[in-house]
Design goal:
single chain; Topoisomerase I, Chain A, domain 4; 3 domains; 17 helices; globular; V-type_ATPase_csu/dsu; ion transport; proton-transporting ATPase activity, rotational mechanism; V-ATPase_V0D/AC39_subunit
């Protein structure tokens, strides 16, 4: 594919990047006197109208949905957006399966940013007719229903659909013939598996459970995790020291062992992906700046949710700052 096809999109993305919130701005908001002052400090940002809605949570969700609507109009190669939209298909499907099994209305949990229009997806579940769903997702939906019928464990739905989501993302990447998309999905798989490995060990759930949640098709093979499962985490750090994950894994585990807070691992993994994306700033032609901008905005929305939830609940600013992710700018 001729990467110059992205030239016009990237020109727009560079303008959008100037509106991203800096770390200094976000830390300033976290220092606000109270929730109302935090909202006022964000009025001059692109989130001003969204967080002024009756529910800031609804506003942040609306801003995310609007981001994907804009990107689908802007970017000429649909797969570049679909590779990330697929994660919202999985989120929505998990919610709809659980809602169907429990009889609970899950509409408020759904996010209209997937590859499947939300109204269409809801109709599929209402009619129990999934033939219009992409084949990979359909297969995993049926597996999830069957597994739940056998075990009645909602966690099984998450495990199965996560596997289906990444398989679907890899198919989109393959169809795009853009190597960067394949690379970013494999990176996400590896980070997900590393986080799961540390979490499962901390919860003492056993190697059998980890093997069930392990996502295939990343660069890190199952054997790397299995042979280190019963060893101290230091042993695992040494094993990944020759991979691109060396620094964030080492620092994340150090923070986790000091605090006992598994959230430090989540934060370290998120920060690593943001740091990896920064190389896109030097790309003039290709999908990299588009992927980087979307993930940067998602990260920004996540950070705003952490800050505003903290301010709403009168959490001390020092604690809020500890939870903040790195920013793209």
């Amino acid at each position: 594919m001729d990467n110059t096809i992205f030239a016009q999109s990237i020109a727009r993305i560079r303008v959008y990047e100037t509106r991203l919130l800096t770390r200094a701005k976000l830390e300033g908001v976290s220092e606000a006197r109270d929730f109302d002052e935090a909202i006022r400090m964000l009025q001059d940002s692109i989130y001003g109208s969204y967080i002024s809605m009756p529910s800031y949570e609804d506003g942040l969700k609306a801003s995310l949905e609007e981001l994907y609507r804009d990107m689908k109009k802007l970017v000429p190669v649909r797969e570049v957006i679909d590779i990330l939209s697929a994660r919202y298909d999985a989120h929505n499907i998990k919610s709809l399966i659980k809602g169907k099994q429990s009889g609970v209305d899950v509409d408020s949990l759904l996010i209209d940013a997937g590859t499947i229009p939300l109204d269409n997806l809801k109709m599929m579940f209402r009619d129990e007719d999934y033939k219009e769903m992409p084949e990979i997702l359909r297969d995993y939906v049926l597996k999830a229903f069957e597994s739940y019928r056998n075990a009645e464990d909602p966690q099984e739905i998450d495990i199965i659909m996560d596997k289906g989501m990444y398989r679907y993302m890899l198919e989109i990447a393959k169809n795009s013939r853009l190597e960067y998309l394949n690379k970013i999905v494999k990176l996400m798989i590896d980070v997900t598996n590393i986080k799961a490995f540390i979490r499962v060990k901390a919860q003492e759930r056993g190697i059998e459970f980890f093997e069930r949640v392990y996502i295939e098709d990343g660069k890190l093979e199952l054997d790397l995790f299995a042979t280190n499962f019963n060893n101290p985490l230091d042993s695992f750090v040494k094993k990944v020291s020759f991979t691109q994950h060396d620094k964030w894994v080492r620092e994340g585990i150090e923070e986790y062992e000091k605090t006992g807070d598994l959230g430090r691992i989540e934060k370290a993994g998120d920060n690593y992906i943001i740091d990896y994306l920064r190389s896109a700033k030097f790309v003039s032609f290709g999908p990299e700046p588009i992927i980087a901008y979307i993930l940067a905005r998602e990260n920004e929305i996540k950070v705003l949710r952490i800050i505003l939830t903290g301010k709403k609940n009168e959490v001390h600013p020092d604690i809020i700052r500890e939870r903040l992710r790195d920013t793209y700018v």
